[in-house]
Every structure is written in C-alpha cells, then in structure tokens.
Amino acid sequence: MDGSNPDRRPDPRHDAPGAGVIMTVGSAEAGLGVTGAASALDRVTAITLAFLCLASLPWIVATLLPPLNHDVAAILQFAERWVAGERLYVDLIDMNPPLIFALSVIPVLLDRVLPVDAAVALVLCVYAFGLLQFRLSVRVLHPELSARDLFGLAFVPLFVLVLGPLAGFNFAQREHLMMLAALPYLFHAEARMAGRTWIRGATAWIAIVAALGFCLKHYFLIVPIAIEGYLLLRRGWRETLRDPTPRIMMAVGSGYALIAFLLFPSYFSLVLPLARSNYASLGGMSMMDVLSSQIVLPMATIGFLLIAVTVQFSRSERARILAVASLAGLLVGVVQRKGWPYHFVPAESFIMFLAGALLAEWGSQILPPQEVRRRAAALAMVSALLGVGYLHTLDTRESPWRQATYDESGPGQLAQVLKHEAANAPVLVLSPAIYPIYPALNYAHAPMAMRFMNMWLVQGAYSECLPNRQMYRNIWDMPRSEFYAYRAVAEDFARRQPAVLVVDSESGIPRCGAEFSYIEYFRRHPLFAENFRHYVLQRRVDRFDIYVRR
Question: N or C: which end of the chain has fewer CB within 10 A?
Fold first, then answer.
C-alpha cells in the first residue's frame, strides 16, 4: 500500500510538469502584492497624518502674531513689572495666585537674552512645554501606542489640534496650560490602573508638572480629585497607598501653598478679601445658565453623550479615565460661573481625546481583519474625527481671523496710538476691560501706571444702582474695598505721572440715571483732580478718550 487515495482525480495544477514551481512563483507574487499594498498604505498614512498636522499651521502662525490673548498679556506685564522691582500683591494687585506670575517671569527673562519680544517668547515657551508633554505622553503610552493601533494613528494629530487650533485666541491661558499639564497625567492614570505605577524617568516629572498645572487655579483641583477618586474606587486603598503619584502631587501642592503663604502674605490678607467682596458680583451666572449658553451647550451636549456611552458600553480604561476627566473639565468651567469660552478649553480637549479612545475601541471590533483594509479603514476614521475637530475649531474660534484684522481694527489702532504717544512710558487706563488695553500696553512697552490691571474693584462696588438714585457714594459711605481703590488710583496717578491717560467711555457699570464717569468719580479726590489739570484730551480711538500730559 502506498497510502494513495484511489478515488483522487488527477489535478493538472499539481501533476503537470513544473506545477510546484508555478505555485511557488504565484505565492511569491501574491506576497509581493500584499507587501506593495502595505507599503503604499504606509506612504498614504504618513501623508494623511502630516496633512492633519499641517492643517494647524494657520493657528500656529496666528499665535505668534498680534494680538496676544489679553489675560495672558496682562499677567505678562505684571511679571515684567515684578522683575523690574515692584512688589507682587503690594504694588501689583491681582486675584491670580503667584504661580502664574512666577511662570510668566520665564519669557520676561528670555526677552532680555533673545532677539524676540516677551510676548513671542511666551508663545515659544508654551510650544516648548507642549513638546515636553507630548514626549511624556508617548513615553507613558509606549508600547501600546503604534501606527497600527487606531488610537496611535489619531494621537499625534489630536495632540497638535489641542495644542494650537482648539485653544485658538485662548492660547497660553491658564486653562490651556492646565490641559497640557494634565494630558500625560491622564494617560499615566491608565498605566497605573494596569499596575505600571512607576515609569522610569517619567513618573516624577508627570506628577510634578500636573500638580503645578492644577495649582494655577483652585478650580482645577476638581480634575485630580476626580481622577484619584476613580482610581481609588477601582483599585482600593492598598494599591493607592503604594502609588507614588498622589504622594508626589500632594507634596508639590502643599509646598506651593506653604511658599505662597510665607512669601506673599498680602495675597491672603488683602487680595482674597477684595476678590470675595467685589469680583464675585461681576458677570456671575447660574450653573444652568452657563450650561445652556450658546457657546457651551453644543460642546456640553456632545461631552455628556460621550460620557454616557462610555459608562454604558465601554470596557476601555483609557476611555473611562478620559470620560472622568471630561466630566471634571466641564465642572471646572461651570463652577466659575462666567460662561467664558476659555474656561472650557480643558473640557473640549479631554472630550476630543475621549472621542478618539471610543473610536479606537469601537473600531477594533468592526474593522475588517485583513491588514491592509483594516489600516485603510482606521485611517479614514481618524481623518473623519480630526475633520470634525477642525470644523468645530473653525466655527467657534476667533483665531486666526482676529490676528488677520488686528492692525485695522479699533484695538489695533489703540495699540498704534499708545506706541506713538507713550512708548516705554507709563500709561494710566481707567477701564473695566482687559482687552484691548492688553496687549496694547505690552506692544507699546508702556507699564500700567497703577497697581490694578483694570477697574474691577470700582466696577464690583457699583454692580447695582445705589438707593435714592445717587450716582457715586460719599467717601464716608464707601466700603473698605472701594475706598482702597479710590485712594490707590489717585495716589498712583500722582506718583507715576503717566504720559497718557486713557478713559473708557463704557464703564461696565449699570446706567443708573446717567452714565457712570470714571473721570468724575476720581476727580472728587483732590490728588487726582490736581494732577488731572495737566492733561488735555487729544483724540478718541474707538471707545477710548486719549488724554496726553501737557
């Protein structure tokens, strides 16, 4: 018996002379075809991802052009005055804790050694920080992060999107910095859930940077409290106590609080009481009004929908952690009760990464098994996700349109006037606004000639009409916070003798029988009235009256 099957019919493909050679060659050609298709797909993938990243170029260029974000510019000028010798929370009164001013000193010092303006140096510093956070994120996600993974495909263009375009005109705002500080921390939380509590050369830096980012505003502490609470519920007390990350973060936060208390006692004794008495009444909204506002409602709706999908259907720890972060980011924006767009930059960024994580989890289940088709479909999904992100950015962001029209706009003309009339000389501005006063003062290198950034103390004191249709309080009836501002502005005016006085015709105060006038209000102080005699009205720019010293 030869073991052959008598019923087997001859197959010309096998039995013909040279059939084995033909099959070998055919298999090789098929393999080469698959390899060639994969190589072509690699090139298409690289080109597509490069295009998705290069799509951010207009926003990146815009961040280097005027105008710098007004809040960022105001903090930057306070840092410049601090470096020049003025005392923080004594000669410089602002509600922000000292950390943001300390960080803003870095571009101020770079301005002295590099051939760039402090505003440009600040933007470059933020991009350098973003690059550091990107490297830390990759370090944590490796080896899971790869071009063959759907989330790996989306990660780089998503990071570029949240670094520049999604921030828009809010680039370098405290919320933007916190979001960048938090991203490696969030990815590390996933690794900690998997037992990788210590990543050599990364864990300590991630914890320190995240802790500093969350210390920029006390509202930001909602994010680490939510994440650490989730990890505690999932892992239990024992794993949490063995984890070094929360211990490092608590040490950094406690150290910062102690340093602030010891070095800046006036922040606690003077600034915080002023903020409690006056700032809270400015533009406050209920939480429901914030959520239902035209800017927040669409983003919050999508965010809550993705969070609900994650809770109900997702088994991915990455998606769950990003869902917790997204919910915490929404709370950070809502509890500030202002409804300002930059308050929701962290929430929008976390929601974009949550969408990417859910897409990766869902796509891994439905993508075709063939390697080439699977990667092509994944690339199409990533492109669709980033397309939605950029459409949202185009629809909701002021950049780069504001930069393109700045020179011809009223704010741009004000900056030009200040450059001409008060270059390198102090300027006193009586206005409730931050924009466009900042960054116009920055571009003119003209320091504010008073200890406040704007008239927020006076504005808060007159958030409601006085009884008996009285326009201004008598001096003896002023609360301590108002009298402090009333006296301080007059004293700073006399001491600094600014080259230019700028008065806003829009007081930001309710009209109570007549328009509130900052000039009339402060002229009741003899010191202010005596010095005001030396100024003449030169012109009006937009809504601002420009007085020049004789």
Answer: N
Q: Which residues, other chains included, contact 439 with Cβ-Cβ below 8 Å and sequence gap of 6+?
A: 66, 67, 68, 69, 70, 73, 119, 415
Q: Which of 246, 206, 253, 201 is nearest to 227 (CA)?
A: 246
What amino acid occupies position 196?
R
Contact at 8 Å (CB) between 140 and 187?
yes
Residues 473-511: tens digit of each pLDDT: 999 999 999 999 999 999 999 999 999 999 999 999 999
Write the burial class of residue 64 (CB in 10 Å: 0-12 exposed, 13-18 middle, 19+ buried).
middle
Check if the beta carbon of residue 438 is closer than 8 Å to that of residue 70. Answer: yes
Give 369's pLDDT tier (boundaries 50, 70, 90): confident
Q: Residue 393: which of 340, 338, 359, 352 has the closest Cα?
A: 352
User: Which tokens belong to 445?
Assistant: 């290198």
219-258: b (≥16 Cβ within 10 Å) or e: bbebbbebbbebbeeebeeeebeebebbebbeebbeebee
| Token output for 475 | 């001096």
Task: Say if residues 397 and 165 touch (Cβ distance below 8 Å).
Answer: yes
Alpha-carbon span 224 to 331, nearest angstrom: 12
Cis bond before residue 115 (omega within 30° of 0):
no
CA–CA gap between residue 321 and residue 317 (Å, rounded): 6
pLDDT at position 38 is: 62
Residue 333, sorted as left (phi over 0), alpha (psi -120 to 50) or beta, turns out to be alpha
3-state SS string for 447-516: CECCCECCCHHHHHHCCCCCHHHCCCCCHHHCCHHHHHHHHHHHHHHHHHCCCEEEEECCCCCCCCCCCC
Report yes or no on whether pTM surpasses 0.85: yes
Residues sharing a CB contact under 8 Å with residue 218, sequence separation 6 or more, in sequence order: 97
CA 369, CA 264: separation in Å to the nearest integer? 62
Overall size of the chain counted in residues: 550
Task: Name which of 2-11, 236-245, 255-264, 437-446 the model is least confident about.
Answer: 2-11
Helices 345-366 and 150-163, axial angle in degrees (round to 10): 160
Q: For residue 427, what pLDDT is reported?
A: 98
- Number of DSSP helices (H) and strands (E) in the chain, helices first: 26, 4
At 5, is the pLDDT very low, low, confident or very high (cuts 50, 70, 90)?
very low
CA angle 524, 527, 532 (to 5 degrees): 80
Tell me what the mean pLDDT of segment 147-160 comes to.
Answer: 88
Q: List Cβ neighbours of 388 (8 Å cut-off, separation of 6 or more).
A: none
Report whether 461 contacts 391 (CB < 8 A).
no
352 touches 166 (CB < 8 A): yes
Q: How many CB atoms lie within 10 A of CB 50?
A: 12
Do residues 414 and 542 lie in contact, with contact meaning Cβ atoms separated by under 8 Å?
A: yes
